[in-house]
Amino acid sequence: MAAIKPLEIDRAIAKAASSMKAVPLLCGSALKNKGVQPLLDAIIKYIPSPDMKPFEFTHGLNNEVSSRFPSRKDNLCALAFKVVNDKEKGPVTFFRVYSGVLKNRQKLLNVNLDEVERISSLLRVKADET
C-alpha cells in the first residue's frame, strides 16, 4: 500500500472546500494562542485565492449561484470565517475579501440572514503582535 503524501491531502481538502462538499475544521484557543497560526495557514491553503479564478458562491434564500472576479472596482464580496466576542469591542468578525473594497461604516448584505448589517469599525490583524 502506497503512502499518501501531505501535499495530496492538502489538495484534496482544498478541492472539497472550494466545491463546498466539505468544511475544514481546526481547533484551538485564541486566548492561549494555541492553533492560531495553523488556522491562518489553513486559510491560505484551503480557501480559494482571489487572484486565481472567479470565486463562485451561493446567496439569498433561494441559493442563487453567482461569481466574482477579483477586482477593486467590482462590488464587495467577502467571506466571514470566524466570529469572536471581545470584552471591549463586542463581536469581532474575521473575513477575507474576494472583490471590492470594504470601508468603515459601510452597510453590507449578510446573505445567510438576508439582512443588512453595518460595519462599525475596521481592525487590521497582525499575527506577530499582541
Descriptive account of the structure:
With 130 residues, the protein is α+β, with helices and mostly antiparallel strands. The chain has two domains: 1-47, no CATH class; 55-123, Elongation Factor Tu (Ef-tu), domain 3, CATH 2.40.30.10. It is built from two helices and six strands; from the N terminus they run ααββββββ. It has helices spanning 6-18, 36-46, and strands at 55-59, 64-68, 77-86, 90-99, 107-110, 115-118. The strands form three sheets. Strands 1-2 form a two-stranded antiparallel ribbon. A two-stranded antiparallel sheet has the order 3-4. A two-stranded antiparallel ribbon has the order 5-6. The longest helix is centred in the first third of the chain and has 13 residues, at 6-18. It is globular. The protein starts with 5 loop residues before the first helix and ends in a 12-residue tail after the last strand.
The geometry reads as globular
Helicity level: 10-25%
**SS-based class:** alpha+beta
How many individual helices? 2
For the biggest β-sheet, the strand order reads 1-2
CATH fold label of the largest domain: Elongation Factor Tu (Ef-tu), domain 3
Please give the CATH class of the largest domain.
Answer: Mainly Beta
- Overall number of domains: 2
Compute the CA-based radius of gyration. 17 Å
Which residues sit in consecutive blocks of at least 5 with pLDDT less than 50? none
Overall pLDDT metric: 81
By CATH, the architecture of the largest domain is named Beta Barrel
Note the topology:
Elements: H1 6-18, H2 36-46, E1 55-59, E2 64-68, E3 77-86, E4 90-99, E5 107-110, E6 115-118
Antiparallel strand pairs: 1-2, 3-4, 5-6
